[in-house]
Amino acid sequence: MKVLFRSLTLAALFAASACSNEIVNEIEEIDPSSKTAISFSVEENSAHMTRAGFTASTKIAMRIKSENGAAAKYTRTVATASAAVSGKEYSDITTDGAYIRYWDDAFGRAAKLSVFALAVPDKTDVVNNGKSVEEKLTSGGDGWFTEATENEKINWMVSTTQTAATIANEDLTYSNNIKEGGQNGVYKYDFTTEKYPVYSADLEDGQMKFRLRDIADVTGPGKFDKGHLIFNHALSRITVNLVKGAGFEGAGSFQFASGTNVQVLNVPVSGGLDLSAGTWSDVNSDDIDKMVSLTPAAGVAYSLMAQILPDYEISKTSVTNLLSFTIDNNTYYITQAQMYDALKNAVTNDGTKITMAQGSNYIFQITVNKTQIANVTAVVEPWVDVTSAVWEPSNARITLNSIYDSQSGESSTNFDLYRLLDESPTISDSYVGKNWGGDYTDKASSLTVNGNGGWDTDWYFDNNKSYYHFRTVNKDTAVVTSADQDYFEIHAGPEGSTDPHWGAPMTQEPVYDVAKGYEDALSPAIGATKSNINITDQHMLSKVIVNLQTTDGADQVDFTGSKVYITQIHKEGQVQMGNGLITPTGTPGQLTMDGNAAGTQFTYAVVPQALVRGSNDDDYVGITIVTGDNNQYYIVKKLSEIVATSVDNEKNQAQGAAITRWYPGHTYEYTFTLKKAAIDKVTCTVQGWVNVVADNKEISLED
User: Which residue spans within 20-81 are E strands per DSSP?
Assistant: First the structure.
């Protein structure tokens, strides 16, 4: 083993500002072979901390590039830094003879050296993804070699299940400050004092080279530069401190769920580091499913840390979840936007995002209450703490968007909100609940207008295993309990006297099905979410309009005093709370429609139903018209034979087809042309009522 006199010396692990230490001896290092060895000192770039050497032996792998205007030469070499001894602020370096590199073999006086190095502090036998530290560098045996394409790129990865061992073994550092354009990497010999400058003072920029004592004497004596490698941490860290808040009283509370930990979601875990540029590429992302537990500070219940590749962007507006953790069967999510809000005053950012930097530890302190995440502070630690603002994100408060009346265009408050717990023995985090039936008597006791144009309820999700169906009905509507599905009653009436509504969260445009109601469009049961719950509200009656017209001839009919009756119609019905299915009830009978003063138009809200129920005369819904002149009667026994001549929306009724059923939320306008002798012509148009919708969109169950 050859020991170079303080060549390749490593100093100031976790180094900071301003102290001096003469670590480079003025005596030129001469090998017994009379060659001049290439020498270095080393520090780690960790601002604001006390300088110290490595606490244990550390392997340093270097790739040295030598240029003289011709083709470059490269070599790979390895050195070992010993643990710093008491009183020293650096570590001494030893190299095996096969790994000593000489200026003489690298163009000698004509050489210009660049150095790219990597190390894992305090580690001599690190293996990352199957390769040791030196194997990450381009191979080249024991000497110098040339390359057709320069390559200073290495691959590195961090574990998705992290422990104290993986954190230490994967803490990659690199040095690239000795190169063209590099800074503070060169000790130039001072021929006046006949020594090299003191440690960390008067360092030159750029590459290492030979310096003449007399620049005019090109063949005269001189000194080779010594190098000073500054190592930078290549990764970023996230530390999460969890503080027990309100609602977690008593022994045994505030516990992680069995087998789980804080997760860091979809962050960079592997990629390629260009040692020359100090940049990452070809990055792959995954979830960190387990962070390493740290000893918590006073007042902190849990402290955990993860190590990831840098350059992850925390967006100001993104609702993408970055952190997830489960405590006492409650799962909490922290989004990018919430992280940004906590960090925005602690780090420099462009107002839209924060990019996680190499060598920075982003520390989040989160106070967790039973029903909400109460306080979060964040610091960025380039191995020093910086405090940010406090924020209070809500956790799973149940909130409704505004619901607008389609007739007035104004925000509607005329509704009650109900919910049903979708109970299933197979409930899991990915559960899709479609148990529509059950007890819908759990009504929100208060709805408070919030600042976003919607309403907050007095409900919270009990935990993340609670999935609910939400339904709205007109205020003060009686919900009847049934063994199958709870329901409320509807009945026909004059226009404006009755307009029952029923609403539910929808995932698509609702289309009524005569067997299933609105099941095809219904959102599954909703688990804990901080997103607004968006209700699509439906008119549950049909509107029937009868227009009477006549000719200008002798057979003209006088409509003064006319009356219109709908015959064999169900005047009552039930609406199932779960799916909105309407079932007509009671015995079919006759109802009298309201008409205008001229007796030419009659309007009524009716229970949606089939217009033909069988083959007997009593099984057909019909219309009877009684005119005022000479008491003439006009009877249409089978409305189901009348064809739709115009249809606004064909989702339930095709144009040109017979109208055999009245659907909820539709207007059916029949026009009869009467003559004294008979009904001459009948037409009908179908118009869909405008849905009452609160921001109809798919609901996220994990926001």
Answer: 40-45, 58-67, 73-81
Give per-residue pLDDT as tens, 259-318: 667 899 999 999 999 999 999 999 999 999 999 999 998 988 899 999 999 999 999 999
What DSSP assignment string belongs to 1-34?
Answer: -B--SSTTEEE-BTB-S------S-SSPPB-TTS
163/687 Cα distance (integer angstroms): 65
pLDDT score for 178: 92
- Provide CB contacts within 8 A for 280, sequence distance 6+: 268, 271, 272, 273, 274, 309, 310, 311
In which band, very low, low, confident or very high, does the pLDDT at 403 lie, cut at 50, 70 and 90?
low
Assess contact for 584 and 471: CB atoms under 8 A.
no
The four Cα atoms 123, 128, 134, 136 give a dihedral, to 10 degrees, of -150
Six-digit token string for 55: 């606490």
In the chain, the amino acid numbered 75 is T
- Which is nearest to 336 in space by CA: 351, 323, 349, 350? 323
Percent of the chain whose pLDDT exceeds 90: 36
- Which of 503, 497, 548, 533 lies closest to 521, judged by CA? 503
Structural element, H or E, at residue 135: helix 133-136
Longest dimension (CA), the chain: 136
End-to-end CA distance of the chain: 61
Report the C-alpha gap between 172 and 586 in whole angstroms.
Answer: 79
Beta-bridged to residue 115, according to DSSP, are 64, 178
Q: Is 672 in contact with 549 (CB distance < 8 Å)?
A: yes
Q: What does the buried/exposed string (b/e) look like for 256-277 if buried means 16 or more CB atoms within 10 Å of the residue's CB? A: beeeebbbbbebbbbbebbbbe
Residue 164 CA to residue 307 CA, distance in Å, equals: 11
Cβ atoms of residues 443 and 418 within 8 Å: yes
Q: Which has the closest alpha carbon to 160: 334, 285, 26, 303?
A: 285
Nearest Cα neighbor of 282 from 295, 273, 294 is 273
User: What tens digit of pLDDT does each residue of 30-53 get?
Assistant: 333 467 888 877 666 654 444 456
Q: Give residue 428's pLDDT.
A: 59
Q: The domain 542-575+585-688 is classified under which CATH number: 2.60.40.2630, 3.40.50.2300, 3.40.630.10, 3.40.190.10?
A: 2.60.40.2630
- Within 479-562, strands assigned E span 487-491, 501-505, 535-539, 542-550
Collect all residues with Cβ–Cβ distance below 8 Å to 198 and sequence separation of at least 6: 20, 21, 22
* Structure-token match 């919607």, residue found: 454
Strands (DSSP E) along 82-141, which ranges?
90-91, 93-94, 112-119, 127-128, 131-132
Q: Give the whole-angstrom CA distance, residue 137 versus residue 133.
A: 7
Q: Are 389 and 341 in contact (CB under 8 A)?
A: yes
Q: Is 453 left (phi over 0), alpha (psi -120 to 50) or beta?
A: left
236-381 maps to which CATH number?
2.60.40.2630
Our separate counts of H helices and E strands in the chain read 3, 53
Q: Structure tokens of 80?
A: 């070992």
Instruction: Quote the tokens at residue 75.
Output: 């070599």
Residue 492 near residue 500, CB atoms below 8 Å: no
> How big is the chain, counted in residues?
703
Q: How far apart are CA 106 and CA 72, in angstroms?
A: 9
Yes or no: say if 674 and 680 are a contact pair by the CB < 8 Å rule: yes
Measured from the Cβ of residue 158, the count of other Cβ atoms closer than 10 Å reads 24
Contact partners, residue 646, CB within 8 Å, separation at least 6 = 655, 685, 686
